[in-house]
Structure formats: C-alpha cells, structure tokens
Amino acid sequence: MASSGTATSSQLSQSAFLGINWFLFALCFIAFVSRIYIRWVCFRRLLAEDFLMLAAMLLLIGIEALSQYYAGFIYHLMAYVNGTATIGPDFVINTEGMLKSCGSAIIMFLIGFYFIKVNFLLFFYRLGSRAARIFRIVWWVVFGIVLVCGIASVTMGVPTFKCLFGGILYTFTTCETVEYENKFFTYFRASVALDIFTDALIGFTVVATVLRGALLSEVFEQTEQGGKAFNIPWVWFWFHVELCTAFIVACLVSFRSLFVYREQQSSAALRAAAMQRRRSHYHPYPAAVGGSGTLQGSGNGSRGTLAGFRGRIKLFQDSVLETCRTLEGVFDGEVTLVDMPELSGRSHLVAVAEHESGTIEEHAHENISNHVHDDLEHQGEGITVLDTVSVSPMEQDRRSASTSLSLDSL
C-alpha cells in the first residue's frame, strides 16, 4: 500500500520488509531447533539458558505475527502521512491497533535482547564455576548491572510509548511535535547506549547494536508537507535484525558442544581399545627367534605412527580437544556441571585406563619374560628351559636380561 517516491518505500518496501523478516525468523527457528537437538544429544536435558532462548523464540513468533498482520496498515499510515493515500472507513480502528502492536513489538524486542544477554551470562557462569572466587563476584556484579539496564530500557520508554498506546487523536496532536521528536531521540540514544554497555560487559557482539545506533537519522523521515513522521517500518526492521542476529549467535555456541561430544565418544573408544590391549598383554613387536621383530598392526597407538608426523598431529589434536572439553563444563575424569549419563560410563572407563597405565610399567619386566618364555617353548629343538623357581624381582630381571642376550646370540 505504500506509494512510490516516499522515503519509506525507497528504503524498504512492504514486500522486502516482510520477506527479510520472515527469512531471518526462519534462520532463527532452524538455529533454535538445532540447539535443542544438540543439547538433548549431549546432555539428555535442557539447561537453564535453553529455556531463556525458548522464551526469546516465543517473543519472536509474536513479533512475526504482529508484523505480518499489521504490515499493510503500517505502510498505509506512512502513505497517508506523506499525502499519497486516502482515509478509509476503518482507518481509525486499524491505525490504533497498528500503533499498539508497534509499541508491543518494541517492548518484546527489548525483553528479547535481555533474555539473550542473560543466556550468555548463564553460559559464562557454567564455564567459570571452577574459577577463582573473584570471577563469581564479578559475574554477579555484571548480572545485576544487566538486569538494571534491562529494566531501565523498558521504563525509560514509558513516556515515549504513550504515543503508541494513547490513541490516534493523542498521537496526531502530541506526537508530531519537535518536542516529542527530541524526547524520542533521547530515549533511542539511551537505549542503544545501554545495549552497547551491557554487550561490552558480557563480551557479546555489538555489531548489530552499533549498526542500529548508526541509523538514528532514519528514525524520522521528511514528509511531502515539510514535516517529519516517525518511520515505523525502519525502526521495526532494525530492531528485528538486531534481535535475530543475537539469537543466531547465541544458538551457534551449541554446535561446538556437539563437536566436543563427538570427539569425546571417539576418544573413549580409543581408550577402551588401548585398555583392552593392555589387559590382553598385547605387544606390537613380537620378536621371533632369529628375527628383528615385525609390527603386528598399525593405528594411533603403534610406535610407527606415534613416531611419525601423523602421530604428532594426533597428539596435538587430543591436546586441543582436551582444552575444548572444558568450554562446556567438562573437566578431568569427565566430571561435568550438568548430569551427563552418556559420559558417566566413559568417566569410569577413563579412570580404569589411567589406573592401568599407572600399573603397567610395574609389570613390564614380567611380561617380557613371559613372552620370551612362550617363544622358547615353541622352538621345540635344542632349547632347554630352566625350571621356574621362586626368585626375587631383581634376580628375575637379571635372568630375563640374560635370556634375551642368549636369544640375540642365536
């Protein structure tokens, strides 16, 4: 319904307004569904910040419903203000409903912003739960500041919102003045400043917030009569872009937790295989009599691979993954800040593997003696094996060494 030639239509048409809004909403919905799926796969439960993101998604759904229903009325009002549209029989009722929906959308935008900010705060709290006490003190200070700024952002706009909730007569008589324009600009600047300040405290991206603040000059547009009108589509659009950008970034954090979880599964399988080889006295270099020893198999645990370039890359990767595991609150022994039933079994497995690795060296000499003893028994001809007697560990080590030397001489 917007006519061509106006500032609003040249900046953003109704079809572009709805198309971009729905496209961003689709991205947010996909990111949110992926986040919930990843949380369930990794933790088998939702965390506290996931419910905040669910609330933000419900706010987004409400905003999209309002924009879809009232977009035509918004652009018709802008066209009427510019003198390019006439008043219909339902103009007053439709315009009052549209203005109230605009005020409701702005409030939902502001609440959604701070839901996402608190989501990041809870995420960082989980990461730093084992940090020094000063971290928790700073966290609570930042949390309090963010809450105060959020309440201030909404309450500061109460005088401004009167032009949206006060009825069409109040809007056209009071809200078209220079005084209201200055008041709205003051509120808008303060809102952007609080957004940037709280984003900086949290460590969150401020690109979209700065972009919205840089477009303050477009909030009011020049009309054909020489006055100024509140550019509703432009403000709505950039609020929507900022909220969707923050929402998508918040959901992308969950993809890293899935990556870490998959790597933990693979690492647990490798540890289980290594522990099984240790229990079965697996020896990668069984030396036959008269031979130099042949590598039984290859793999991440073989000496040939670990000594080569690929082995070093694997060790570096394991070191990086061990560091990344803590980013989701996973610490040594697979202890987590949330209940993770899938990892509890691996926790026991790692503990057993570490215990086995601590005791395997104590039995190294005994295992080598057993291997040599078995090889001698399979020779059959001309080799006499001494009867097994009870000796001290030092004597047993000396006999094992002498037996190995005699084999080399053969």
UniProtKB/TrEMBL annotation:
PANTHER family: INTEGRAL MEMBRANE PROTEIN-RELATED (PTHR33048:SF47), PTH11-LIKE INTEGRAL MEMBRANE PROTEIN (AFU_ORTHOLOGUE AFUA_5G11245) (PTHR33048)
Name of the molecule in the record: Uncharacterized protein
Organism whose genome encodes this protein: Cytospora mali
Transmembrane helix keyword on record: yes
Record keyword Membrane present: yes
Residues that span the membrane, as ranges: 20-38, 50-71, 105-125, 137-158, 192-215, 235-255
Domain of life the protein comes from: Eukaryota
Keywords linked to the UniProt accession: Membrane, Transmembrane, Transmembrane helix
